[in-house]
Write a structure and sequence with these properties.
It is a single chain. This protein has about 70 residues and is an all-beta fold. It is built from no helices and five strands. Strands 4-3-2-1-5 form a five-stranded antiparallel sheet, with no helix packed on it.
Length: about 70
């Protein structure tokens, strides 16, 4: 399931949650089925320990690393 801004999650994406906290996606656990949300592991920019199992639909994409 995509971010709330519509993009498919990718490792390295800079994302923002509902309260404005910013982090980088370091792992994606893909959900299976139409209504299952992908779960993300986020490394927070404020230096907090990475946390896993956030739903992708709770985040907005800020920027994406260039490919190639």
């Amino acid at each position: 399931m995509p971010y709330k801004t519509g993009e498919t999650p990718k490792i390295g994406d800079h994302v923002k949650n509902r309260v404005g906290r910013i982090g980088i996606v370091i792992e994606i656990q893909q959900g299976f089925g139409e209504m299952i949300d992908d779960k993300l592991t986020i490394k927070w920019d404020d230096g907090s320990v990475p946390i896993w199992d956030y739903f992708a639909g709770d985040f907005s994409l800020i920027s994406r690393a260039r490919e190639g």
